[in-house]
Fold:
Amino acid sequence: MAASGTVGRDTMADDAVADQDRMRRFHDAALPCLDDVFTLARYLMRNPSDAEDAVQECYLRALRHFDTYRGPAMKPWLFAILRNVCNAEFARRGKEEVPTDYTADDSAAEEMPMWQEPQASPESSILRQQESATIRRLVEELPRPFREVIVLREIADLSYQEIAEVAGVPVGTVMSRLARARAMLRSAWNAAETASPKPGSMPASGLSP
Amino acid sequence: MNCAECELLIHALIDAELDAGHAREVEAHAAGCSACAQKLASFRAMHEAMKGAALKEAAPAHLRKRIEALLTVPARANTAVRSFSRPSRRGFFGGFALGSALSAAVAASLVLAVMRNNEQQTIADEVVSAHIRSLQAGHLMDVETSDRHTVKPWFNGKVDVAPPVIDLTAEGFTLLGGRLDYIDGEPVAAIVYQRRKHLINLFVAQRLGAAHAGALSEAIQGYNLRHWSQDGLDFWATSDLAGDELDEFVRKIQAALRAS
Structure:
């Protein structure tokens, strides 16, 4: 902090006003994205307290760089920062996650029809909750690049172009990763279904045939 | 279009990322290829199921509070500007003492107690504000070193006490450095520690907060705050660290002070 004696009162007050204005603009633009940023952090870090740390660091960094922010939309911009924060954290820990090997059952799953016709089951919020919990778990178990692309597309609802910007890869890479990620998720989902068949639990009722 | 091409474009079709021409091509291929038709139906159903599921998670209230606090505290000049316009608390107390007569002594002590509480609260708020300010770029450290023998002399002449600088690196609290900060218009020593990714600011000064007000433990704007007095100095520790871990930090500092 600058020594109070070296800066005149007016300059200081001006600075304070400018700071407050900047803060307010950042507040209005970035705070509405908090749930989305936390959701992404939750899936990337796979642990609530790590996710909180990452989100806080993300907002600090975003505030720091807000002066240079010229777009894209606020949400993908925050996502890109968050992703860097998470990657830095993984690098700091110095250990990669153990990649889950999905290749083994990939081909077998290809042959199986995954989605049956929706069964006549009552619309039940409990079923929906169970289903949501299962999907969350399966998404969390995907290896990082595939988890990331699924979350950005299916949960954060980003376009391919936005995902490419967040992940810093070409759109073609986004497409091939997404295809692979969905195939992995589908086979994991099939496996989960086979392991514990719950009538009507998956797919959800009301699916398009 | 062959199946390999189709397989990639199925997803773009589901995600509405295809132009009309390509979309027609994919649909035409799927119409004549049961394998691709099956995939299209199954991936589309999965996409729909995910859209309908509750997969988002709301940020916890304490995190929201913490981030809102980050965005509402002016980055600079908060305490500095106020120090120009506001009489210092010592001046205030001095004036009060001069004007007090014997008959008013009882009432005065009562008022004094209330004022101490208010003062304590003001300082608690300022400590947390200073902590939040310090998290912003370039505000955290004036002297950046893990060597306590560098940190301690740095404060010479900047604050009117020689703050104890204790290295707790071996015990999981890394000493990052020190900073000159202002609380209630007075210069104070801020010593910065880190536990994992959490920063702890330990503010040390003489009479920072009402004397004999006792130890204090609370949370403000999502930050935990501890205050105690020891060896004639006032200590304020604040961090986003969990309460029990901040307590551990405080115990370790207190123990090290007693041992020194």
Q: What stands out?
A: The mean pLDDT of chain A is 77. Chain A has nine helices and no strands.
